[in-house]
């Protein structure tokens, strides 16, 4: 069995190594895919069915029933925006479905403030070989498949 | 367990007196410290850090999604 992980945002899927942050590009917390978002106000959606186990305005983690955890980070160093420009539609501990809207944000505004808007989507504490069906050179819509993780 | 980790990380950052600020991000602790030379990177890794990035008095300790918990445990120790 494997868990299908969908893209939280619409944009260009790219190798995780292109994220301008060593924690993600060197896969220190796990492997994944980077999505370079299309501009304009957009809703970031849950990448899998599960529980919203961590929620910050600029990042969240959805934990699945079989013990996997998928991290979505909206932009790089965006913790410094202190939530400005991010509107939350869910609360920590909520059960969510893949494709359900979690945060509304605007990647264009994030870039205007001097931050990269790229979104790492990471399978936390998983070996790289456990990722399959990886999409990392294609335009994707929010909710489109991005990769699968063994469960 | 988590508290032991917090204690070990705090010690490896040079102890209570060396911390100016600790802020959790989703995968890491962003720390502002007094004296960068007191940071023991090997000890941080032994304490469970996946990685350490230091630029002078700014240290990022990559601990994964436990960052929130560890940061609040460290704050309890300060």
Task: Spell out the key features of this protein.
heterodimer, A: 151 residues, mainly beta, eight-stranded antiparallel sheet, three-stranded antiparallel sheet, 7% helix, B: 78 residues, alpha+beta, four-stranded antiparallel sheet, 3 helices, 28% strand
General description of the model:
Chain A is mostly beta strands and 151 residues long. Chain A has 2 helices and 14 strands, in the order E-E-H-E-E-E-E-E-E-E-E-H-E-E-E-E. In chain A, the strands form 3 sheets. In chain A, strands 9-5-6-7-11-3-2-13 form an 8-stranded antiparallel β-sheet, with no helix packed on it. Helix content of chain B is 36%, strand content 28%. Chain B has a 4-stranded antiparallel β-sheet with strand order 1-2-4-3. In chain B, a hairpin with a 3-residue loop joins strand 1 and strand 2. The longest helix of chain B is centred in the N-terminal third of the chain and has 11 residues.
In short:
The complex is a heterodimer of chains A (151) and B (78). By secondary structure, chain A is mainly beta.
SSE topology:
The complex is a heterodimer of chains A (151) and B (78).
Chain A: E1 2-6, E2 11-15, H1 22-25, E3 32-37, E4 42-45, E5 50-56, E6 59-63, E7 69-73, E8 87-88, E9 95-96, E10 101-105, H2 107-112, E11 119-123, E12 131-132, E13 138-140, E14 145-150
Antiparallel strand pairs in A: 1-14, 2-3, 2-13, 3-11, 4-10, 5-6, 5-9, 6-7, 7-11, 8-10, 12-14
Chain B: H1 2-12, E1 19-24, E2 28-33, H2 41-46, E3 51-55, E4 58-62, H3 67-77
Antiparallel strand pairs in B: 1-2, 2-4, 3-4
């Amino acid at each position: 069995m494997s868990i299908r992980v969908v893209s939280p945002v619409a944009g260009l899927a790219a190798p995780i190594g292109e994220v301008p942050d060593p924690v993600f590009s060197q896969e220190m917390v796990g492997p994944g895919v980077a999505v370079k978002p299309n501009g304009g106000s957009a809703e970031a959606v849950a990448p899998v069915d599960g529980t919203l186990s961590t929620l910050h305005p600029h990042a969240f983690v959805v934990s699945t029933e079989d013990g996997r955890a998928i991290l979505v980070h909206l932009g790089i160093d965006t913790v410094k925006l202190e939530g400005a420009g991010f509107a939350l539609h869910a609360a920590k501990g909520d059960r969510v479905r893949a494709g359900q809207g979690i945060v509304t944000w605007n990647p264009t505004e994030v870039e205007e403030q001097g931050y990269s808007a790229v979104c790492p989507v990471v399978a936390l504490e998983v070996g790289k070989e456990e990722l399959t069906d990886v999409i990392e050179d294609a335009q994707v819509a929010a909710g489109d498949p991005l990769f699968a993780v063994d469960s | 367990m988590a508290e032991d980790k917090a204690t070990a990380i705090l010690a490896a950052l040079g102890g209570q007196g060396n911390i100016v600020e600790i802020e959790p991000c989703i995968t890491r602790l962003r720390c502002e410290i007094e004296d960068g030379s007191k940071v023991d990177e090997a000890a941080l890794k032994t304490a469970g850090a996946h990685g350490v990035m230091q630029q002078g008095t700014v240290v990022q300790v990559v601990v994964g999604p436990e960052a929130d918990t560890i940061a609040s445990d460290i704050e309890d120790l300060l």
